[in-house]
Amino acid sequence: MKKKIIALFLGICILLTCTVPVLASEAQAELLKIYGDDMLFEQEKDAVFAGKAPAGSTVSAELFAADGSLAASAETVTDEKGEFTVSFAAPKGSFEEYTVILKCNGTEFDTLNRVVFGELWLASGQSNMQYPLGQALSAIEDFENGAKQSKWIRAMVSDTYSAHGKVSVTPHGDIPDAVWITGENPAIYGVSAVGFFFAEELLEELDMPIGILNISLGGTSIATWLSREAIDGDEQVRKDFTDDYIPVEGWADSDINYSADMTVNYNLRIEAVRHFRPSGVVWYQGETDIMLNWSPERYARAFDLYQRSYTELFEYEDGLMPVIYTQLAPYYYSTDGGWALPEWNFALADWQKAQPDSRAMVTINDLPGTYIPAAGPIHPGHKEELGDRMAECAINMLYGGSAIHTAASLDSAEIRNGSIYATLTNVADGIEADGTPDGFAICGDNGVYVKAEAELVSENTVRIWSDSIENPVSATYGYCVSNGNANLYSVKDSEKYMPVSLFVTDPTYGTQYWIEKPWTECESAEIWRYNNEQQTGYFPGWTVENAEISFNSADAYSGSNGMNIKADSGSFTVAPLRNYTDRFEPDTFWDVENCFKNYGTISFYVRNNGTSDITFDGLKIYKNKALWYSPSDCSTNQPESVIPADGEWHLVTLNLDKLCLWGNECGILFSNGNLDSVGDFVFCFSGENADISFDHIRFTPETDEEINRFEINIANADSILEYISAFFVTVIGAVAKLFNV
Hints:
This protein is of the alpha+beta class. It folds into 4 domains: 29-117, Immunoglobulin-like, CATH 2.60.40.2550; 144-398, Rossmann fold, CATH 3.40.50; 409-509; 518-712, Jelly Rolls (Sandwich), CATH 2.60.120.260. The chain has 13 helices and 39 strands. The strands form 7 sheets. Strands 28, 29, 30, 31, 32, 33, 34, 35, 36, 37, 38 and 39 form a 12-stranded antiparallel beta sheet that branches. Helix 5 (193-206) crosses helix 12.
């Protein structure tokens, strides 16, 4: 009996000795945290699983279909560090949910439930990409009502940035708090709005599950999304980082900036997802680099490196990994009066042409700048349209759509017979205007841009001209921050495809920044104004005294609408709203032009619809509250003119090189050089029972004509003040002549 007990004890010891290592290996085997229930793998590529287990262990992955049948399997042996990757060929995308079982040495250590296969994309960039679905204007109601979205949209999310923990000088191998969610999870409203709408559109078009790797962070430079290996491997980009490069030995002593410092966001979250095989990247970024005063050329080099290095990282095999990106939204990113934004957006179109097969550019200048107060004007809320356009690009680029997968942009330009003919590329089935073609400016060899007229002369060509520019040298389209007037679209299948990109026909000429003047069109009661914060939004386009104004098509000389002015009797005025505080103080909106010294004339069309003549008493151009000038009417040589009650349109042209101080044509005259800083324009009228149509205000460039400093014409004097003024001018003129002044 005693021998049996001893034998039993020895047997138990032997059994424990054999089984403990197995149990230990089971306990130590684990997948990276980037994997989880509800996840999505790219269809028909390798589905790669990575993790850790004791060195020399056999790790297997088994894929089971919904009916329990084994659909795929693979196994591997962990290396000397205890790391493993095991993969099998992913099935074609479908709405079937699979189960993946992971085993170490034959024993299960993890199970992934409800796994699907479809199309996977990386959604990355800065705040406009991070901008959550719950704040998108078209999704706020769904968010507030707790509406569920499609279970076939899958997103990998994490909250790594909330802690802002230490970022290693070497890339992190995993994202510890990564979670996969479906559209039915309330957390979907925290996912990138652009990424979600992109996935939603692809889901409808491709009829299979769509996944996004939701990895973006507000305020980040492209430098933070590049790896050290990539930067060190590109000589020119490495030179670009001369002042911003952080060496390995200096990393620990650096105060790491998540927004600007090289490699930070790559290290924290990008290399961790290297085992996935996305079809491409949707990218919304660049605002920070404008603010950091990066040149478009420097950014272009970093962008090239971004695409090349991510192609290698994700083992993309069919050429360069596709990148679908957007032009930047209207905002004053720089202190140069807004010049940087059109320069960048123009360059973005050129970058697409540099790699036309793997890049698509989305335009957004037609989208309203509407935003919610919590987000601020740098974050426009119309994200659904942007996501849909990116999806359309992806469909045409990768999934059998049309051959055109990017916005139309300038191809070439020709100057002919006083007009500039701009020919566009990537126009799909052609181009069309949403109304009369608008958003154009043109200049002669003095470089002064003025509003231009335009017409579509073929499916891909626009004629641009101005009657005030006989020999044009360059033209622009949408080339400013506030470019909402630009209204050309490419057309596909008889529907609008995408807005045409802004352009300049001769960038070597020294393009001047063009500030659009929407008030000159007299189209609507309200105008969108771009300041950076509180003064961004819709404001009245005009102010009025002793009259009522309205806007409608019956009062239009050109375009959709014109202004109607009604007044009972006496004097009345209309003035464009240029300031957001006092009319005559310099608190102008940032997208309002203040310098008018380069213009020679201002003109407008007016029609008297009443039964009595109306007097145009002159245009008052204010320097400040006390100082104002009235330009002389080119036909009367005085500030005033009469608008007869004939129901016909009359062109009034005012000479900005002949400015009458305080409206006194008999006194000292000034040239347009005094209009270097303008506070306000006030159009003054008088008459009985006035009913006026007012439209189509235009400026022309200055001329080289010299004017007299003094105008002495007693016959024009019609008040004691003007007689006295003429007398003093005569005396001053005689003294000036005597001393040869």
